[in-house]
Amino acid sequence: MTFLSATLDRVKPSPTVALTGQVAALKAQGKDIIGLGAGEPDFDTPQNIKDAGVVAIALGKTKYTPVDGIPELKQAIVDKFKRDNGLDYTPAQVSVGTGGKQILYNALMATLNEGDEVVIPAPYWVSYPDMVLLAGGTPVIAEASLQTGFKLTADQLESAITDKTKWLIFNSPSNPTGAGYTREELKEITDVLMRHPHVWVMSDDMYEHLVYDDFEFTTPAKIEPRLYDRTLTVNGVSKAYAMTGWRIGYAAGPEALIKAMRKVQSQSTSNPCSISQYAAVEALNGTQDFIAPNNEIFKRRRDLVVEMLNAAAGIACPVPDGAFYVYPSIAGCIGKTSAGGAKIENDEDFCTALLEETGVAVVFGAAFGLSPNFRVSYATSDEALKEACTRIQTFCAGLT
């Protein structure tokens, strides 16, 4: 008899989490490593938000809370959806979890049966397919491409949907590409969904506020109000509010779904951290003035990285609309050999050799479902980015 669950055979550890651990271990050994793998702003949590957490501690807000969120936070989320997205929800339609990942996982666990399919556009966030597998479903990967701006077309979505499809997981702006769907592009997607009333949409809007240039964010339930009753709109405070360690994600959707998600959470983690919830109330209700200046910094870093990577031999790096990632193609590097003698047959080979020979850590594209590419997080200092991109240029110049 095997002790471990056979379910674990269906999934793999998160490659991004693994890389973060590897970078930390190499730095602890005294090696000169520049880590560009973590999807985490290098900004500190704004002071007003930290102060709200301190006040909550001082007031003794350290006990269990309702399973899926305190009333104050649920109301703040209701107000946020109305203010930012023009979506009307009630507190009973809101769920708060320990990060956006738990919200997504709860929804999948609450809805998927064996044989149910979930359409996931690639490139995708590394956890989507494995969460579907853990919940007993079947991920159906709909592969986008550099030619479509890493965005799923309506025809591709139509081809991926079957009578077994239960969800489409939608992410804009995207992790790992930073690609964002325009209103027109999103309308084409929602038009397809309207032709398939058995398909629900899980909209991961985590990077909503991290957009650049003239890009205007919107979300499926706003574009197509008739999708409201089969849309779970997911968000959180981790990225725009620099609160990754506080671990607060949330979603709003049909009350029956939220109730089912609450049941899952009640028998797993129970409530999110009480202190984090009170800090998140301040994040959503308090000043938003820091978001625009932070975005200007991210935009400057984006432009720096895109310019320097496009100057590297064999690399083509598109300009993302949002988030803080670029997803360059390394098609021009495949089949070559590095200065250190490593044969570059795929993007994992490229990233392994890059780390070993230059100390730059990036995540290989196969982890996100589309190769040959790699992901760079530019949520770090200008100096680190310049040095990392210089090393990448040197590495590529040495390929023969």
Q: Report the sheet-strand fraction.
A: 5-15%
Order of helices and strands: HEHHEHEHEHEHEHEEHHHEEEHEEEH
* Oligomer kind: single chain
CATH homologous superfamily caption of the largest domain: Type I PLP-dependent aspartate aminotransferase-like (Major domain)
For the largest beta-sheet, the strand count, sense and barrel status come to: 7 strands, mixed
Cα Rg: 21 Å
Query: Tell me, what is the CATH class of the largest domain?
Result: Alpha Beta
Per DSSP, the total helix count is 13
Low-confidence stretches: none
Mean pLDDT, rounded to whole units?
Answer: 96
Strand count: 14
- At the fold tier of CATH, the topology name of the largest domain is Aspartate Aminotransferase, domain 2
Percentage of residues in helical conformation: 25-40%
Structural class comes to alpha/beta
> Roughly how many Å apart are the termini?
51 Å
Task: Supply the CATH architecture of the largest domain.
Answer: 3-Layer(aba) Sandwich
Adjacency order of strands in the biggest sheet? 2-8-7-6-5-3-4
InterPro entries: Aminotransferase_I/II_large, AspAT/PAT-like, NHTrfase_class1_PyrdxlP-BS, PyrdxlP-dep_Trfase, PyrdxlP-dep_Trfase_major, PyrdxlP-dep_Trfase_small
Family: Belongs to the class-I pyridoxal-phosphate-dependent aminotransferase family.
Cofactor: pyridoxal 5'-phosphate
Protein name: Aminotransferase
Written description of the protein model:
This protein is of the alpha/beta class. The chain has helices at about 15-30, 45-60, 70-85, 100-110, 125-135, 155-160, 185-195, 220-225, 255-265, 275-285, 290-310, 345-360, 380-395; strands at about 35, 95, 115-120, 140-145, 165-170, 200-205, 230-235, 250, 325, 335, 345, 360, 365, 375. The chain folds into two domains: about 5-45 and about 290-395, Aspartate Aminotransferase, domain 1 (Alpha-Beta Complex), CATH 3.90.1150.10; about 65-285, Type I PLP-dependent aspartate aminotransferase-like (Major domain) (Aspartate Aminotransferase, domain 2). The chain has a seven-stranded mixed sheet with strand order 2-8-7-6-5-3-4, sandwiched between helices. Helix 7 links the parallel strand 5 (about 165-170) and strand 6 (about 200-205). Helix 2 packs across helix 10 (about 275-285), helix 4 (about 100-110) crosses helix 9 and helix 11 packs parallel to helix 13 (about 380-395). The radius of gyration is 21 Å and the shape is globular.
